[in-house]
Amino acid sequence: MSEHAAFTALQNHLSNRIIGQEGLIERLLLALLSDGHLLVEGAPGLAKTRAIKELASGLEGEFHRVQFTPDLLPSDLVGTDIYRPQDGSFHFQPGPLFNNILLADEVNRAPAKVQSALLEAMAERQITVGRTSHPLPPLFMVMATQNPIEQEGTYPLPEAQLDRFVMHVLVDYPDETAEREIVRLIREEERTPGRDLSQTQTPKLSSEAVLTARRQVLEIYMSAALEEYLVRLVRATRTPAPYGSDLENWVRYGASPRAALALDRVARARAWLQGREFVTPDDIHTIVPDVLRHRILLSYEAEADGITPDTFIKELIQRVATP
Fold first, then answer.
1. Which band of pLDDT confidence, cut at 50, 70 and 90, is reported for residue 199?
2. Mean pLDDT, range 48-55, rounded to an integer
3. What is the dihedral sign for C-alpha 256, 292, 109, 92?
C-alpha cells in the first residue's frame, strides 16, 4: 500500500469513529504531514480527546495523555533523575514527553515552568534535564486542547509558544444529523465494549511511512505566483495599510515568517492528501485561518468593537488579490 493510500484509509477510519468533525480530522492529518503541532479549542464534549486517541491508534507509535493542572511540575512532563542507592548513581527516567503522540489536555491550566518545558520539546525536539539534553523521537507531535468557556485558574499561553503550533483549530458543535449518529455510535460501543465498530480494519501507519509521506509533501508543486501570494498574505498581517486604513487600526502585531513557512507546508500537505501534485488557491484559503488566527494580536480598539482574528483574516483574503 502506498503512503497516500494508507493516509486515505486512516482518514476514512477516523471519519467512521469521529462523527461530524471532518474539519478536525483533516487538520490532524495535515499537522501530522507537516511535522507540526496542533492547538485545538472547543467546548467540552466535542471529541477533541477522542480524535487524537483514534489518530494514535492508527499509528505504530507510543501515545500518552497528560491532564494539565495548576500543580503540574516540569518533571511530570520531562522526567527526572532517579537515585540508585546500590551503586550511588543517578538514572534518567523519561517522562510522558518521550512518546510519538502527546495529548496535552487543557494546556492553558499549567504554570509557566511547565509551559517552558513543553516549549523546548515542541521547538527543539529535545528535553534538557540538568546538564544533559535528550533527543525526542523523529515522529513527535503535540496536540494541545483548550476550553474557551472556563477561564478561571488558567494561564494564557505565551506568544512564543503559540507560534510553535502549526495550526489553531476551532471546533464547533456537530449538526443534528451527525449528533444522532454520535448517539448511535456510542450506544453500540457500550453494548459491545472492546470491539472495533469501524467499517474497515485499517492497518497501522509506521513511523517510516509517515516520514516518507512528509518528504513527498515537500515535492508538491507550488507556482511562483501562489508562493508570492502566500507571502503577501502573511506580510499583510504586519502592514495592512495598503489594503485599508480600517485594517491598519485593527492589528497591533502580525504573523512572523514562521507563519509563511507553516502556510507553505500545510498547503502542500492538503494538496498531497487530496491526491494532487500541485497547490491551488483553495488550499491556501482553506487553511489560512487556522495557520494565522493564533499569530495575530489585535488592537484594543478592534477587540472593543468585537473584531476577531478570523474577521481580520477574512477581510485580508477578500482584499489581497488572488492569482
1. very low
2. 90
3. negative
Which set of grid coordinates corresponds to residue 257? 515568517
Handedness of CA 44, 46, 47, 52 (dihedral sign): negative
Q: Which domains, from first to last, does the chain contain?
A: 3-196 (3.40.50.300), 219-319 (1.10.8.80)
Helix, coil or strand: residue 139? coil
Give, to the nearest 10 degrees, the angle between helix 207-218 and helix 3-17: 110
For residues 57 and 279, which has the higher predicted lDDT (pLDDT)? 279
Please give the pLDDT value at position 193.
65
Confidence of residue 290 (pLDDT cuts 50, 70, 90): very high
Q: Does 197 have pLDDT greater than 50?
A: no
Helix spans in the chain (H): 3-17, 22-33, 48-57, 74-78, 112-124, 159-162, 176-191, 207-218, 224-236, 245-250, 257-273, 281-292, 300-304, 309-319
Show the DSSP H helices in 125-175 as ranges: 159-162
Terminal-residue alpha carbon distance, the chain: 36
Nearest CA to 207 out of 105, 278, 136, 264 is that of 136
